[in-house]
Amino acid sequence: MPAEKRQRVIEARGVKKEEMYELRLYVAGQTPSSVRAFANLKKICEDHLKGKYTIEVIDLLENPQLARGDQIMAIPTLVRKLPEPVKKIIGDLSKTERVLVGLDLRPRVGTK
Amino acid sequence: MPRGRPTLVCGGAGSGKTLFAMEFLVRGALQYDEPGLFVSFEESDRDLKQNVMSLGWDLDKLVSQKKMLIDYVYIERSEIEESGEYDLEGLFIRLSSAIDSINVKRIALDTPEALFSGFTNQNILRSEFRRLFRWLKDRGVTAVITAEPGERTMTRFGIEEYVSDCVISLDQRLFDQIAIRRLRVAKYRGSQHGTNEYPFLIDTSGFSVLPVTSLRMDYQVSTERVATGIPRLDTMMGGKGCYRGSSIMISGTSGAGKTSVAASFATAVCQRGERCLYFCFEESPDQITRNMRSIGIDLEPWVKSGNLRFRAARVTSYGLEMHLSIMHREIDDFKPHMVILDPISDLTAMATGHESKSILTRLIDFMKAKGITSLFTDLSHTGDMEATETKISSLIDTWILVRDIESGGERNRGLYILKSRGMAHSNQIREFLLTDKGIELLDVYVGAGGVVTGSARISKQAEEDAANIVRQEEIERLERELNRKRKTMEAQLAAVHADFDTEEELLKKAIAEARMREKVLAGGKGKMAHLRGEDKNPNKTR
Fold first, then answer.
1. Which chain A residues contact residue B84 at CB under 8 A?
2. How confident is the model at residue A4, as a pLDDT?
3. Residue A33: which CATH number?
4. In the predicted model, is pLDDT for residue A72 greater than 50?
């Protein structure tokens, strides 16, 4: 993952706005779990949201004041800004099942 | 509190933890130039600001002056899904940037237990807690952390494990339907601290703690005497009245006239140009003023001139600590020379015996240290006049009793001084009259059945006046008798003298004649001898 302020990975062509998934991944520097989270996220998006997502990576070490807006405490945190309602998933996203449930891509069936 | 270390403030809902934490920051910012950060996990910053507005703290102003920051950390459980490993670095980053922005020295976390409801992984949470407090210590900030008490542990989630340098517990409980607050320093590593519970209040200027045993008895006393407003009473006390700064109690049965005597004292104080603070617990100030007017004491002009200030409250309005605190405040504000509590019987009845004596001791100590004369009225019950509700008589320097004397089908009032430390005082009971010209103290008559008062006294007085007149007349009669006798004697004496004078004259004449004859005879005899040519006989006697 290149160390830029923001990185957008846009895979959207001719998709309706209501179906777009706007995702934000908050990290704090290049920690192993942050790297893992990004990798896991990309994989999940490719598998389940192909062509319908944008991922924005925000590094809080560079922009600490942004933690307030989305009330970010845990790192890494994935925030689904769209579609509403806002959803948060914390952790390195290694538990795919939970990520999908969190993103509302799969209905909840009990807890794992 | 220990600098640079975390202090845990533990208490139930409504015990004052948030306010404690907030006051810690506000005072730090205002008085000690230490900027503060308030991290609220439960209330929004807008709610917080509004809540503390009633204490006169303008948080917006402090924020704009860069003396304070308020951060609202909101955790919504339902929003969060946990997937994999994480830590709370986001929180650290947030705190860090806030601390650096205004160089925060004091921080309050209210209450980080909320994190437990947001995140389920207890292991991660606990290790992050440990990290947090070490991190705060490293940054040299003094932290106050609030928490609720747990069932078997000190705090619900056991965070006392990580914050163990200093623990303060706040408690609010009901006693006889009145809420009282207590504070206790449960732990303070490395220092000697009082571990007792101390009562405290939260009022319009924040927390105030009044330790139960506060003052030493090392105040100075005055030898100045102050008038009581009733001249006869002054004379009963060695002619001068009470000592300034002493504690005076007027006790008596209901309706005996205690308030009237207290009002006299108040008037005397005002007339000297001094200030009197009158706490009334039973009657309203207007009622007292009206009632006193009927006995010729007008308190209204003194209220207007600012010499007399009334403060009324029903005793059951607040707890004793609150009363004490209010009285302290009023005394500090008005700086009176005399304080009157009318009556204290309700106050003392509110607490247990030990507590009320303690409260009064503190109050009296406080006033003596300032040289304020204190006056208490106390309701006593017939039958046991000389025992007060809580045996507080040992705290009192001068004790005046007003009691009813029943005789001859009437009840009249008598007043006497039971004790007055440091002066000679009369031991006589005086009859105590409330006339429309004020209070009068009269001598009592001791008749055959004891003290005589009221109409019996008037009749006794009339009797004595009559007896006086009779005695007076008797004396005059005797004097007249004496005069008469003297005159008689003198006349007699004059007559005897006159007789004597006459006799004396006669006798003197007779003596003179006899002497003349003698002379003639002697002369004649000599001539005859000569004529006879007698020769002198030397032996012949003549």
1. 33, 36-37, 40, 91-95
2. 41
3. 3.40.30.10
4. yes
